[in-house]
Design goal:
- Helices cover 51% and strands 20% of the residues.
- A hairpin with a 5-residue loop joins strand 13 (394-403) and strand 14 (409-420).
- The chain has 20 helices and 21 strands.
- The longest helix is centred in the first third of the chain and has 53 residues, at 2-54.
- It is an alpha/beta fold.
- The strands form 4 sheets. It has an 8-stranded mixed barrel, surrounded by 4 helices.
- It has 3 domains: 2-169, Beta-Lactamase, CATH 3.30.450; 224-367, 2-Layer Sandwich (Alpha-Beta Plaits); 379-630, EAL domain (TIM Barrel, Alpha-Beta Barrel), CATH 3.20.20.450.
Length: 631
Protein backbone atom coordinates (compact mmCIF):
# COMPACT_ATOMS: atom_id res chain seq x y z
CA UNK A 1 0.00 0.00 0.00
CA UNK A 2 2.80 2.44 0.84
CA UNK A 3 4.50 1.64 -2.44
CA UNK A 4 1.29 2.36 -4.36
CA UNK A 5 0.83 5.68 -2.53
CA UNK A 6 4.42 6.61 -3.26
CA UNK A 7 3.99 5.78 -6.92
CA UNK A 8 0.74 7.80 -7.05
CA UNK A 9 2.51 10.83 -5.59
CA UNK A 10 5.41 10.41 -7.96
CA UNK A 11 3.01 10.09 -10.92
CA UNK A 12 1.48 13.45 -10.00
CA UNK A 13 4.75 15.31 -10.69
CA UNK A 14 4.96 14.68 -14.46
CA UNK A 15 1.23 15.42 -14.79
CA UNK A 16 1.69 18.79 -13.07
CA UNK A 17 4.76 19.60 -15.18
CA UNK A 18 2.85 18.73 -18.34
CA UNK A 19 -0.08 20.90 -17.21
CA UNK A 20 2.24 23.86 -16.44
CA UNK A 21 3.89 23.52 -19.82
CA UNK A 22 0.56 23.47 -21.63
CA UNK A 23 -0.80 26.43 -19.61
CA UNK A 24 2.27 28.55 -20.34
CA UNK A 25 2.01 27.71 -24.01
CA UNK A 26 -1.69 28.54 -24.07
CA UNK A 27 -1.06 31.85 -22.30
CA UNK A 28 1.45 32.78 -24.98
CA UNK A 29 -1.00 31.68 -27.63
CA UNK A 30 -3.73 33.74 -25.92
CA UNK A 31 -1.89 36.99 -26.63
CA UNK A 32 -1.41 35.98 -30.24
CA UNK A 33 -5.08 34.98 -30.42
CA UNK A 34 -6.16 38.43 -29.15
CA UNK A 35 -4.10 40.15 -31.81
CA UNK A 36 -5.36 37.73 -34.45
CA UNK A 37 -8.98 38.39 -33.58
CA UNK A 38 -8.33 42.13 -33.64
CA UNK A 39 -6.80 41.78 -37.10
CA UNK A 40 -9.79 39.73 -38.26
CA UNK A 41 -12.16 42.40 -36.93
CA UNK A 42 -10.23 45.07 -38.80
CA UNK A 43 -10.38 43.01 -42.00
CA UNK A 44 -14.11 42.58 -41.48
CA UNK A 45 -14.46 46.37 -41.11
CA UNK A 46 -12.48 46.83 -44.29
CA UNK A 47 -14.59 44.25 -46.15
CA UNK A 48 -17.99 45.42 -44.91
CA UNK A 49 -17.50 49.20 -44.65
CA UNK A 50 -14.58 50.48 -46.72
CA UNK A 51 -14.46 48.17 -49.71
CA UNK A 52 -18.15 48.55 -50.71
CA UNK A 53 -17.79 52.35 -50.73
CA UNK A 54 -14.31 52.71 -52.18
CA UNK A 55 -14.86 49.97 -54.77
CA UNK A 56 -11.11 49.77 -55.39
CA UNK A 57 -10.67 53.58 -55.61
CA UNK A 58 -8.36 55.66 -53.53
CA UNK A 59 -10.12 57.58 -50.78
CA UNK A 60 -9.00 60.90 -52.26
CA UNK A 61 -10.98 60.22 -55.43
CA UNK A 62 -14.37 59.42 -53.96
CA UNK A 63 -17.30 61.77 -54.09
CA UNK A 64 -18.78 63.70 -51.22
CA UNK A 65 -21.76 61.38 -51.16
CA UNK A 66 -19.48 58.34 -50.90
CA UNK A 67 -17.48 60.01 -48.18
CA UNK A 68 -20.66 60.78 -46.26
CA UNK A 69 -21.84 57.17 -46.64
CA UNK A 70 -18.45 55.95 -45.44
CA UNK A 71 -18.67 58.19 -42.40
CA UNK A 72 -22.12 56.90 -41.55
CA UNK A 73 -20.96 53.29 -41.73
CA UNK A 74 -17.86 53.93 -39.62
CA UNK A 75 -19.87 55.87 -37.03
CA UNK A 76 -22.24 52.92 -36.78
CA UNK A 77 -19.32 50.56 -36.17
CA UNK A 78 -17.90 52.91 -33.54
CA UNK A 79 -21.24 53.05 -31.77
CA UNK A 80 -21.31 49.24 -31.71
CA UNK A 81 -17.82 49.49 -30.21
CA UNK A 82 -16.53 47.38 -33.05
CA UNK A 83 -13.83 49.97 -33.64
CA UNK A 84 -12.32 52.94 -31.76
CA UNK A 85 -11.03 54.89 -34.72
CA UNK A 86 -10.47 54.47 -38.45
CA UNK A 87 -8.11 56.41 -40.68
CA UNK A 88 -6.91 56.07 -44.25
CA UNK A 89 -3.38 57.41 -44.66
CA UNK A 90 -0.98 57.81 -47.46
CA UNK A 91 2.23 55.84 -47.52
CA UNK A 92 3.93 58.99 -46.33
CA UNK A 93 1.77 59.05 -43.22
CA UNK A 94 -0.60 61.84 -44.18
CA UNK A 95 -4.20 61.37 -43.02
CA UNK A 96 -6.38 61.19 -46.13
CA UNK A 97 -9.56 60.36 -44.27
CA UNK A 98 -10.37 59.64 -40.68
CA UNK A 99 -13.14 59.17 -38.21
CA UNK A 100 -12.82 59.47 -34.48
CA UNK A 101 -10.06 61.12 -32.45
CA UNK A 102 -7.33 59.85 -34.72
CA UNK A 103 -4.71 62.51 -34.22
CA UNK A 104 -3.25 61.22 -30.98
CA UNK A 105 -3.84 57.53 -31.74
CA UNK A 106 -2.36 56.95 -35.20
CA UNK A 107 0.68 54.80 -35.62
CA UNK A 108 3.97 56.61 -35.91
CA UNK A 109 5.28 56.67 -39.47
CA UNK A 110 8.66 55.48 -38.35
CA UNK A 111 7.17 52.76 -36.06
CA UNK A 112 7.12 49.00 -36.73
CA UNK A 113 3.39 48.87 -37.46
CA UNK A 114 3.50 51.48 -40.23
CA UNK A 115 6.72 50.02 -41.57
CA UNK A 116 5.05 46.59 -41.90
CA UNK A 117 2.09 48.09 -43.80
CA UNK A 118 4.40 50.05 -46.06
CA UNK A 119 6.14 46.70 -46.81
CA UNK A 120 2.79 45.18 -47.89
CA UNK A 121 1.80 43.24 -44.76
CA UNK A 122 -0.35 44.19 -41.81
CA UNK A 123 1.25 45.37 -38.61
CA UNK A 124 -0.51 44.44 -35.36
CA UNK A 125 0.16 45.34 -31.77
CA UNK A 126 -1.21 46.62 -28.47
CA UNK A 127 -0.90 50.32 -27.86
CA UNK A 128 -1.92 52.35 -24.85
CA UNK A 129 -5.11 54.32 -24.94
CA UNK A 130 -6.20 55.97 -21.69
CA UNK A 131 -9.67 56.50 -23.06
CA UNK A 132 -10.45 52.77 -23.02
CA UNK A 133 -11.42 50.84 -19.86
CA UNK A 134 -8.38 48.59 -20.17
CA UNK A 135 -6.06 51.38 -21.21
CA UNK A 136 -5.11 49.46 -24.34
CA UNK A 137 -6.28 49.13 -27.89
CA UNK A 138 -5.50 46.61 -30.63
CA UNK A 139 -3.77 48.66 -33.27
CA UNK A 140 -3.78 47.38 -36.85
CA UNK A 141 -2.03 49.12 -39.72
CA UNK A 142 -2.76 47.35 -43.05
CA UNK A 143 -2.03 48.19 -46.69
CA UNK A 144 -4.95 49.06 -49.01
CA UNK A 145 -3.99 47.81 -52.49
CA UNK A 146 -5.14 49.86 -55.49
CA UNK A 147 -6.18 48.25 -58.77
CA UNK A 148 -3.94 50.50 -60.83
CA UNK A 149 -0.61 49.79 -59.19
CA UNK A 150 -1.37 46.53 -57.35
CA UNK A 151 0.74 47.95 -54.56
CA UNK A 152 -0.07 49.78 -51.32
CA UNK A 153 -1.23 53.22 -52.42
CA UNK A 154 -2.91 53.92 -49.11
CA UNK A 155 -2.76 52.50 -45.55
CA UNK A 156 -5.63 51.60 -43.25
CA UNK A 157 -4.95 52.59 -39.64
CA UNK A 158 -7.55 51.04 -37.26
CA UNK A 159 -7.94 50.80 -33.52
CA UNK A 160 -10.04 47.84 -32.33
CA UNK A 161 -11.37 47.62 -28.73
CA UNK A 162 -9.26 45.28 -26.60
CA UNK A 163 -11.69 44.52 -23.79
CA UNK A 164 -14.30 42.41 -25.57
CA UNK A 165 -11.79 40.43 -27.57
CA UNK A 166 -9.63 39.84 -24.48
CA UNK A 167 -12.69 38.77 -22.49
CA UNK A 168 -13.70 36.33 -25.25
CA UNK A 169 -10.19 34.93 -25.41
CA UNK A 170 -10.15 34.72 -21.59
CA UNK A 171 -13.39 32.71 -21.64
CA UNK A 172 -11.90 30.41 -24.23
CA UNK A 173 -8.81 30.02 -22.05
CA UNK A 174 -10.97 29.29 -19.03
CA UNK A 175 -12.81 26.56 -20.91
CA UNK A 176 -9.45 25.26 -22.12
CA UNK A 177 -8.07 25.22 -18.57
CA UNK A 178 -11.14 23.39 -17.32
CA UNK A 179 -10.85 20.84 -20.12
CA UNK A 180 -7.12 20.57 -19.58
CA UNK A 181 -7.59 20.03 -15.86
CA UNK A 182 -10.14 17.30 -16.47
CA UNK A 183 -7.87 15.67 -19.09
CA UNK A 184 -4.86 15.83 -16.76
CA UNK A 185 -6.95 14.44 -13.92
CA UNK A 186 -8.12 11.61 -16.16
CA UNK A 187 -4.50 11.01 -17.22
CA UNK A 188 -3.43 10.95 -13.60
CA UNK A 189 -6.20 8.58 -12.62
CA UNK A 190 -5.36 6.31 -15.56
CA UNK A 191 -1.70 6.35 -14.52
CA UNK A 192 -2.58 5.60 -10.92
CA UNK A 193 -5.01 2.88 -12.02
CA UNK A 194 -2.44 1.32 -14.33
CA UNK A 195 0.17 1.54 -11.58
CA UNK A 196 -2.21 -0.02 -9.06
CA UNK A 197 -3.18 -2.78 -11.47
CA UNK A 198 0.44 -3.41 -12.43
CA UNK A 199 1.55 -3.50 -8.81
CA UNK A 200 -1.28 -5.86 -7.90
CA UNK A 201 -0.32 -8.09 -10.82
CA UNK A 202 3.34 -7.95 -9.81
CA UNK A 203 2.49 -8.69 -6.17
CA UNK A 204 0.29 -11.58 -7.25
CA UNK A 205 3.00 -12.88 -9.58
CA UNK A 206 5.61 -12.49 -6.84
CA UNK A 207 3.33 -14.30 -4.40
CA UNK A 208 2.80 -17.09 -6.92
CA UNK A 209 6.55 -17.32 -7.54
CA UNK A 210 7.18 -17.43 -3.82
CA UNK A 211 4.51 -20.09 -3.41
CA UNK A 212 6.03 -22.18 -6.19
CA UNK A 213 9.48 -21.73 -4.67
CA UNK A 214 8.24 -23.00 -1.30
CA UNK A 215 5.69 -25.65 -2.35
CA UNK A 216 5.77 -28.96 -4.18
CA UNK A 217 4.05 -28.81 -7.56
CA UNK A 218 2.74 -32.40 -7.47
CA UNK A 219 1.13 -32.41 -4.00
CA UNK A 220 0.79 -28.72 -3.16
CA UNK A 221 2.56 -29.31 0.15
CA UNK A 222 5.46 -27.17 1.43
CA UNK A 223 8.75 -28.32 -0.09
CA UNK A 224 12.16 -29.02 1.45
CA UNK A 225 13.13 -25.34 1.56
CA UNK A 226 9.95 -24.34 3.42
CA UNK A 227 10.23 -27.36 5.72
CA UNK A 228 13.81 -26.48 6.68
CA UNK A 229 12.75 -22.90 7.42
CA UNK A 230 9.87 -24.07 9.62
CA UNK A 231 12.10 -26.51 11.52
CA UNK A 232 14.75 -23.84 11.94
CA UNK A 233 12.11 -21.41 13.25
CA UNK A 234 10.99 -23.99 15.83
CA UNK A 235 14.61 -24.45 16.90
CA UNK A 236 15.20 -20.71 17.18
CA UNK A 237 12.07 -20.15 19.26
CA UNK A 238 12.82 -23.13 21.48
CA UNK A 239 9.33 -24.57 21.00
CA UNK A 240 9.15 -28.32 21.70
CA UNK A 241 8.03 -30.72 19.01
CA UNK A 242 8.84 -33.80 17.00
CA UNK A 243 10.35 -34.10 13.55
CA UNK A 244 9.28 -37.09 11.46
CA UNK A 245 10.68 -38.15 8.09
CA UNK A 246 8.58 -40.60 6.07
CA UNK A 247 9.58 -42.69 3.08
CA UNK A 248 6.62 -43.96 1.02
CA UNK A 249 7.26 -47.55 -0.01
CA UNK A 250 6.73 -49.28 -3.37
CA UNK A 251 6.72 -46.04 -5.41
CA UNK A 252 9.42 -47.39 -7.71
CA UNK A 253 7.52 -50.65 -8.23
CA UNK A 254 4.32 -48.72 -9.02
CA UNK A 255 6.20 -46.55 -11.51
CA UNK A 256 7.71 -49.61 -13.17
CA UNK A 257 4.53 -51.67 -13.35
CA UNK A 258 1.64 -49.18 -13.59
CA UNK A 259 3.42 -46.14 -15.00
CA UNK A 260 4.62 -42.83 -13.61
CA UNK A 261 1.12 -41.33 -13.64
CA UNK A 262 0.06 -44.00 -11.17
CA UNK A 263 3.19 -43.32 -9.11
CA UNK A 264 2.29 -39.63 -9.01
CA UNK A 265 -1.25 -40.51 -7.95
CA UNK A 266 0.16 -42.68 -5.14
CA UNK A 267 2.22 -39.73 -3.87
CA UNK A 268 -0.74 -37.36 -4.11
CA UNK A 269 -2.93 -39.83 -2.20
CA UNK A 270 -0.26 -40.22 0.49
CA UNK A 271 0.03 -36.45 0.84
CA UNK A 272 -3.75 -35.99 1.01
CA UNK A 273 -4.19 -38.72 3.62
CA UNK A 274 -1.42 -37.43 5.85
CA UNK A 275 -2.73 -33.88 5.58
CA UNK A 276 -6.29 -34.99 6.39
CA UNK A 277 -5.17 -37.00 9.44
CA UNK A 278 -3.39 -34.03 11.04
CA UNK A 279 -4.59 -30.67 12.39
CA UNK A 280 -4.16 -27.67 10.06
CA UNK A 281 -1.40 -26.28 12.29
CA UNK A 282 0.75 -29.39 11.81
CA UNK A 283 3.33 -29.12 9.04
CA UNK A 284 3.33 -31.77 6.29
CA UNK A 285 5.93 -31.38 3.52
CA UNK A 286 7.07 -33.31 0.50
CA UNK A 287 10.84 -33.17 0.63
CA UNK A 288 11.89 -35.11 -2.48
CA UNK A 289 10.71 -38.09 -4.50
CA UNK A 290 8.92 -40.43 -2.09
CA UNK A 291 10.17 -38.66 1.07
CA UNK A 292 7.87 -36.55 3.25
CA UNK A 293 8.45 -34.55 6.41
CA UNK A 294 6.14 -33.90 9.37
CA UNK A 295 6.65 -31.34 12.11
CA UNK A 296 4.47 -32.16 15.10
CA UNK A 297 3.91 -29.88 18.09
CA UNK A 298 3.43 -33.00 20.24
CA UNK A 299 6.33 -34.79 21.90
CA UNK A 300 7.04 -38.26 23.31
CA UNK A 301 4.17 -40.72 23.47
CA UNK A 302 1.70 -38.07 22.29
CA UNK A 303 3.69 -37.65 19.08
CA UNK A 304 3.78 -41.42 18.56
CA UNK A 305 0.01 -41.56 19.07
CA UNK A 306 -0.44 -38.89 16.39
CA UNK A 307 1.88 -40.84 14.12
CA UNK A 308 -0.19 -44.00 14.65
CA UNK A 309 -3.24 -42.05 13.49
CA UNK A 310 -1.39 -40.91 10.37
CA UNK A 311 -0.17 -44.44 9.63
CA UNK A 312 -3.70 -45.80 9.94
CA UNK A 313 -5.03 -43.20 7.51
CA UNK A 314 -2.19 -43.81 5.10
CA UNK A 315 -2.61 -47.59 5.18
CA UNK A 316 -6.18 -47.66 3.85
CA UNK A 317 -6.53 -49.54 0.58
CA UNK A 318 -5.88 -47.52 -2.57
CA UNK A 319 -6.87 -48.57 -6.09
CA UNK A 320 -4.56 -47.45 -8.90
CA UNK A 321 -5.23 -48.42 -12.50
CA UNK A 322 -7.66 -51.02 -11.20
CA UNK A 323 -5.03 -52.57 -8.91
CA UNK A 324 -5.72 -52.50 -5.13
CA UNK A 325 -2.65 -51.38 -3.18
CA UNK A 326 -1.76 -50.68 0.42
CA UNK A 327 0.16 -47.45 0.92
CA UNK A 328 2.94 -48.09 3.44
CA UNK A 329 5.81 -45.98 4.72
CA UNK A 330 8.88 -46.06 6.93
CA UNK A 331 9.14 -43.39 9.64
CA UNK A 332 12.15 -41.83 11.30
CA UNK A 333 11.35 -39.88 14.49
CA UNK A 334 13.51 -37.39 16.39
CA UNK A 335 12.62 -34.84 19.11
CA UNK A 336 13.25 -31.27 17.99
CA UNK A 337 15.11 -30.59 21.23
CA UNK A 338 17.56 -33.32 20.23
CA UNK A 339 18.84 -31.03 17.46
CA UNK A 340 20.71 -28.99 20.04
CA UNK A 341 19.87 -25.82 18.18
CA UNK A 342 21.39 -26.96 14.87
CA UNK A 343 19.14 -27.69 11.91
CA UNK A 344 21.70 -29.88 10.13
CA UNK A 345 22.21 -32.09 13.18
CA UNK A 346 18.48 -32.59 13.64
CA UNK A 347 17.88 -33.53 10.00
CA UNK A 348 20.84 -35.92 9.98
CA UNK A 349 19.48 -37.68 13.04
CA UNK A 350 16.05 -37.95 11.43
CA UNK A 351 17.70 -39.40 8.30
CA UNK A 352 19.52 -41.98 10.41
CA UNK A 353 16.27 -43.02 12.10
CA UNK A 354 14.47 -43.19 8.74
CA UNK A 355 17.21 -45.33 7.25
CA UNK A 356 17.02 -47.75 10.15
CA UNK A 357 13.21 -47.82 9.86
CA UNK A 358 13.50 -48.76 6.18
CA UNK A 359 15.63 -51.76 7.18
CA UNK A 360 13.55 -52.90 10.16
CA UNK A 361 10.18 -54.62 10.31
CA UNK A 362 8.78 -52.11 12.81
CA UNK A 363 8.75 -49.33 10.16
CA UNK A 364 8.94 -46.69 12.94
CA UNK A 365 12.29 -45.91 14.53
CA UNK A 366 13.09 -43.12 16.99
CA UNK A 367 16.60 -41.70 17.01
CA UNK A 368 18.87 -42.62 19.92
CA UNK A 369 22.51 -42.06 20.75
CA UNK A 370 23.11 -45.79 20.28
CA UNK A 371 21.63 -45.64 16.80
CA UNK A 372 23.93 -42.71 16.01
CA UNK A 373 26.95 -44.74 17.12
CA UNK A 374 25.92 -47.78 15.09
CA UNK A 375 25.38 -45.62 12.02
CA UNK A 376 28.78 -44.01 12.39
CA UNK A 377 30.36 -47.45 12.65
CA UNK A 378 28.44 -48.58 9.56
CA UNK A 379 29.72 -45.59 7.60
CA UNK A 380 33.26 -46.40 8.61
CA UNK A 381 32.71 -50.02 7.65
CA UNK A 382 31.44 -48.99 4.22
CA UNK A 383 34.63 -47.05 3.56
CA UNK A 384 36.73 -50.03 4.70
CA UNK A 385 34.79 -52.38 2.43
CA UNK A 386 36.05 -50.68 -0.70
CA UNK A 387 39.59 -51.15 0.48
CA UNK A 388 38.87 -54.76 1.44
CA UNK A 389 37.67 -55.56 -2.09
CA UNK A 390 40.64 -53.81 -3.70
CA UNK A 391 43.19 -55.44 -1.39
CA UNK A 392 41.63 -58.91 -1.57
CA UNK A 393 40.83 -59.18 2.13
CA UNK A 394 37.67 -61.19 1.44
CA UNK A 395 37.73 -65.01 1.59
CA UNK A 396 35.20 -67.66 0.59
CA UNK A 397 34.16 -70.55 2.78
CA UNK A 398 31.93 -73.28 1.43
CA UNK A 399 29.17 -75.31 3.06
CA UNK A 400 28.38 -78.66 1.43
CA UNK A 401 25.03 -79.44 -0.14
CA UNK A 402 24.35 -83.17 0.25
CA UNK A 403 22.23 -85.54 -1.82
CA UNK A 404 19.93 -86.95 0.87
CA UNK A 405 19.58 -90.26 -0.94
CA UNK A 406 23.28 -91.04 -1.41
CA UNK A 407 24.78 -88.88 1.34
CA UNK A 408 27.33 -87.51 -1.13
CA UNK A 409 28.25 -83.86 -1.48
CA UNK A 410 26.93 -82.67 -4.85
CA UNK A 411 27.38 -78.97 -4.41
CA UNK A 412 28.58 -76.21 -2.15
CA UNK A 413 27.32 -72.76 -1.28
CA UNK A 414 29.89 -69.97 -1.36
CA UNK A 415 29.70 -67.91 1.84
CA UNK A 416 31.92 -64.84 2.05
CA UNK A 417 34.02 -63.86 5.05
CA UNK A 418 36.13 -60.77 5.65
CA UNK A 419 39.62 -61.17 7.00
CA UNK A 420 39.70 -57.76 8.67
CA UNK A 421 43.24 -56.58 9.53
CA UNK A 422 42.23 -55.45 13.06
CA UNK A 423 39.00 -57.31 13.86
CA UNK A 424 39.91 -60.71 12.51
CA UNK A 425 37.62 -62.97 10.48
CA UNK A 426 34.19 -61.33 10.21
CA UNK A 427 31.01 -63.32 9.37
CA UNK A 428 28.62 -62.05 6.66
CA UNK A 429 26.18 -60.59 9.21
CA UNK A 430 28.86 -58.10 10.27
CA UNK A 431 29.18 -56.42 6.87
CA UNK A 432 26.59 -57.52 4.28
CA UNK A 433 24.23 -54.67 5.21
CA UNK A 434 27.07 -52.24 4.67
CA UNK A 435 27.70 -53.81 1.25
CA UNK A 436 24.09 -53.18 0.23
CA UNK A 437 24.14 -49.62 1.53
CA UNK A 438 27.55 -48.48 0.32
CA UNK A 439 27.11 -48.92 -3.39
CA UNK A 440 29.83 -51.60 -3.49
CA UNK A 441 27.38 -54.42 -4.20
CA UNK A 442 28.54 -54.56 -7.83
CA UNK A 443 32.29 -54.90 -7.17
CA UNK A 444 31.54 -57.14 -4.17
CA UNK A 445 29.44 -59.60 -6.20
CA UNK A 446 31.98 -59.56 -9.03
CA UNK A 447 34.72 -60.52 -6.57
CA UNK A 448 32.63 -63.38 -5.15
CA UNK A 449 31.78 -64.68 -8.63
CA UNK A 450 35.40 -64.55 -9.79
CA UNK A 451 36.65 -66.38 -6.72
CA UNK A 452 33.84 -68.96 -6.73
CA UNK A 453 34.30 -69.83 -10.40
CA UNK A 454 38.08 -69.95 -9.95
CA UNK A 455 37.70 -72.31 -6.97
CA UNK A 456 35.23 -74.45 -8.90
CA UNK A 457 37.80 -74.85 -11.66
CA UNK A 458 40.39 -75.77 -9.04
CA UNK A 459 38.41 -78.57 -7.45
CA UNK A 460 37.35 -79.84 -10.85
CA UNK A 461 41.07 -80.25 -11.60
CA UNK A 462 41.18 -82.37 -8.42
CA UNK A 463 38.46 -84.58 -9.87
CA UNK A 464 35.52 -83.17 -7.91
CA UNK A 465 32.43 -82.11 -9.87
CA UNK A 466 30.55 -80.01 -7.32
CA UNK A 467 28.10 -77.30 -8.26
CA UNK A 468 28.80 -73.95 -6.64
CA UNK A 469 25.97 -71.65 -5.48
CA UNK A 470 26.49 -67.90 -5.24
CA UNK A 471 24.03 -65.43 -3.75
CA UNK A 472 23.24 -62.39 -5.91
CA UNK A 473 21.04 -59.39 -5.14
CA UNK A 474 18.24 -58.20 -7.38
CA UNK A 475 20.36 -55.17 -8.14
CA UNK A 476 22.98 -57.49 -9.62
CA UNK A 477 20.46 -59.72 -11.33
CA UNK A 478 18.70 -56.96 -13.28
CA UNK A 479 21.96 -55.25 -14.17
CA UNK A 480 22.82 -55.20 -17.86
CA UNK A 481 26.27 -56.82 -17.57
CA UNK A 482 25.77 -59.81 -15.24
CA UNK A 483 25.16 -62.42 -17.99
CA UNK A 484 28.17 -61.18 -19.96
CA UNK A 485 30.34 -61.22 -16.85
CA UNK A 486 29.26 -64.77 -15.93
CA UNK A 487 29.80 -66.02 -19.48
CA UNK A 488 33.31 -64.53 -19.55
CA UNK A 489 34.25 -66.07 -16.17
CA UNK A 490 32.98 -69.53 -17.12
CA UNK A 491 34.86 -69.40 -20.41
CA UNK A 492 38.04 -68.11 -18.77
CA UNK A 493 38.18 -70.97 -16.25
CA UNK A 494 36.64 -73.69 -18.40
CA UNK A 495 33.71 -74.32 -16.02
CA UNK A 496 30.42 -75.66 -17.51
CA UNK A 497 27.49 -73.30 -17.01
CA UNK A 498 25.40 -75.92 -15.18
CA UNK A 499 28.06 -76.05 -12.44
CA UNK A 500 27.08 -72.52 -11.36
CA UNK A 501 23.87 -71.77 -9.47
CA UNK A 502 22.80 -68.21 -8.70
CA UNK A 503 20.62 -67.81 -5.63
CA UNK A 504 18.13 -64.99 -5.24
CA UNK A 505 16.40 -64.42 -1.89
CA UNK A 506 12.61 -64.85 -2.05
CA UNK A 507 11.97 -61.61 -0.14
CA UNK A 508 13.93 -59.71 -2.79
CA UNK A 509 11.83 -60.98 -5.72
CA UNK A 510 10.15 -58.06 -7.52
CA UNK A 511 6.39 -57.87 -7.84
CA UNK A 512 6.82 -57.50 -11.60
CA UNK A 513 7.16 -61.08 -12.85
CA UNK A 514 8.19 -59.87 -16.30
CA UNK A 515 11.09 -57.93 -14.84
CA UNK A 516 12.52 -61.03 -13.14
CA UNK A 517 11.86 -63.28 -16.14
CA UNK A 518 13.69 -60.93 -18.50
CA UNK A 519 16.54 -60.56 -16.01
CA UNK A 520 17.26 -64.29 -15.86
CA UNK A 521 16.55 -65.07 -19.53
CA UNK A 522 20.12 -64.43 -20.64
CA UNK A 523 21.52 -66.47 -17.73
CA UNK A 524 19.16 -69.36 -18.53
CA UNK A 525 20.38 -69.31 -22.12
CA UNK A 526 23.91 -69.81 -20.82
CA UNK A 527 22.76 -72.87 -18.85
CA UNK A 528 23.30 -71.29 -15.43
CA UNK A 529 20.85 -72.62 -12.84
CA UNK A 530 18.71 -70.35 -10.67
CA UNK A 531 17.58 -71.02 -7.10
CA UNK A 532 15.03 -69.29 -4.84
CA UNK A 533 16.72 -68.91 -1.45
CA UNK A 534 14.97 -68.66 1.95
CA UNK A 535 11.73 -69.97 0.45
CA UNK A 536 8.77 -69.51 2.77
CA UNK A 537 9.80 -66.08 4.07
CA UNK A 538 8.52 -64.09 1.10
CA UNK A 539 5.46 -63.87 -1.11
CA UNK A 540 6.23 -65.94 -4.18
CA UNK A 541 3.05 -66.69 -6.13
CA UNK A 542 2.17 -69.96 -7.78
CA UNK A 543 2.30 -68.15 -11.12
CA UNK A 544 5.90 -67.13 -10.44
CA UNK A 545 6.90 -70.66 -9.43
CA UNK A 546 5.32 -72.06 -12.57
CA UNK A 547 6.79 -69.57 -15.02
CA UNK A 548 10.17 -68.59 -13.61
CA UNK A 549 13.15 -70.58 -14.97
CA UNK A 550 14.32 -71.71 -11.51
CA UNK A 551 15.77 -75.17 -10.95
CA UNK A 552 15.78 -75.25 -7.17
CA UNK A 553 13.77 -74.17 -4.14
CA UNK A 554 15.67 -73.77 -0.86
CA UNK A 555 13.45 -74.14 2.20
CA UNK A 556 14.41 -71.57 4.83
CA UNK A 557 16.22 -72.84 7.93
CA UNK A 558 13.58 -71.32 10.23
CA UNK A 559 11.21 -74.12 9.17
CA UNK A 560 13.79 -76.92 9.06
CA UNK A 561 15.72 -76.64 12.32
CA UNK A 562 12.72 -77.39 14.55
CA UNK A 563 10.68 -79.47 12.13
CA UNK A 564 10.56 -82.61 14.26
CA UNK A 565 9.20 -80.69 17.23
CA UNK A 566 6.68 -78.54 15.35
CA UNK A 567 3.87 -80.10 13.36
CA UNK A 568 3.13 -76.87 11.53
CA UNK A 569 6.72 -76.60 10.29
CA UNK A 570 6.52 -80.22 9.15
CA UNK A 571 3.27 -79.50 7.30
CA UNK A 572 4.83 -76.51 5.55
CA UNK A 573 7.94 -78.45 4.50
CA UNK A 574 5.90 -81.42 3.29
CA UNK A 575 3.69 -79.10 1.22
CA UNK A 576 6.66 -77.28 -0.31
CA UNK A 577 8.35 -80.55 -1.25
CA UNK A 578 5.16 -81.84 -2.87
CA UNK A 579 4.66 -78.56 -4.73
CA UNK A 580 8.24 -78.44 -5.97
CA UNK A 581 8.23 -82.05 -7.14
CA UNK A 582 4.94 -81.45 -8.92
CA UNK A 583 6.49 -78.47 -10.74
CA UNK A 584 9.66 -80.40 -11.51
CA UNK A 585 11.83 -78.31 -9.21
CA UNK A 586 14.62 -79.59 -6.99
CA UNK A 587 14.20 -79.05 -3.22
CA UNK A 588 17.04 -78.22 -0.81
CA UNK A 589 16.48 -77.86 2.93
CA UNK A 590 18.74 -75.42 4.80
CA UNK A 591 19.60 -75.66 8.49
CA UNK A 592 19.74 -79.46 8.79
CA UNK A 593 21.37 -80.04 12.17
CA UNK A 594 20.73 -83.67 13.17
CA UNK A 595 20.57 -87.12 11.58
CA UNK A 596 16.89 -87.39 12.56
CA UNK A 597 15.95 -84.31 10.52
CA UNK A 598 18.13 -85.64 7.69
CA UNK A 599 16.27 -88.95 7.71
CA UNK A 600 12.83 -87.34 7.90
CA UNK A 601 13.60 -85.04 4.95
CA UNK A 602 14.79 -88.01 2.92
CA UNK A 603 11.61 -89.91 3.74
CA UNK A 604 9.30 -87.12 2.50
CA UNK A 605 11.21 -86.82 -0.79
CA UNK A 606 13.44 -83.78 -0.21
CA UNK A 607 16.36 -83.90 -2.67
CA UNK A 608 19.19 -82.16 -0.88
CA UNK A 609 20.18 -80.85 2.52
CA UNK A 610 22.61 -78.25 3.86
CA UNK A 611 23.67 -77.55 7.42
CA UNK A 612 25.86 -78.39 10.37
CA UNK A 613 24.69 -82.01 10.12
CA UNK A 614 27.53 -82.37 7.64
CA UNK A 615 29.82 -79.35 8.02
CA UNK A 616 30.08 -75.75 8.95
CA UNK A 617 31.33 -73.39 6.16
CA UNK A 618 35.07 -74.04 5.64
CA UNK A 619 37.67 -73.47 2.92
CA UNK A 620 36.97 -75.84 0.02
CA UNK A 621 40.25 -77.70 0.46
CA UNK A 622 39.07 -78.93 3.86
CA UNK A 623 35.99 -80.45 2.25
CA UNK A 624 38.25 -82.69 0.18
CA UNK A 625 39.71 -84.34 3.26
CA UNK A 626 36.76 -86.75 3.64
CA UNK A 627 36.30 -89.06 0.62
CA UNK A 628 32.55 -89.39 1.25
CA UNK A 629 32.08 -85.75 0.48
CA UNK A 630 33.66 -86.00 -2.94
CA UNK A 631 30.65 -87.82 -4.36
Amino acid sequence: MRAAAGYAAASLVPVLVLGLFLVQGEQRDGHVRVLGRGTAQARMLQGTVLDPVLAGREVSSISSADAAQLRVLVDSAMRRKAVHFVAVRGVDGRVLWGEGPVERRLAAVDGPLFAAARAGRPGVGLTSDPSTPSGSVIHIVAPLPTPASGGAGEVLDVGVPYEDIAASVSRDLHRYYVGLSLALLALYLVQVGLAWSTMRRLRRSAAEDEHRARHDELTGLPNRRAFRELVDHMLQTGAPGTLVLADIEHVTEVNDTLGHDAGDELLRAAASRMRAALPPTTVVSRLAGDEFGLLLPETGTEALAVLDRVRAALGAELVLEGVPLVCEASWGVVPVSAGEGELGVLLRRADIALHEASRSTAHVVAWTEQLQTLTAEALGLQAELRRAIEEDELVLHYQPQVDLTTGATVGVEALVRWQHPQRGLLPPAAFLDAVEQSGTIGPFTSWVLRRAVRDCAAWRERGVDWQVSVNVSMRNLVGPALAEEVAALLAQHGVPADRLTLEITETALPADQGLLASAVAALAQLGVEMSIDDFGTGFTTFAQLRSLPVCEIKIDRSFVSGALADSEDRAIITSVVALARGLGRRVLAEGVETPDVDEWLRDIGCDRGQGYRWSKPVPWTELLDEPARQG
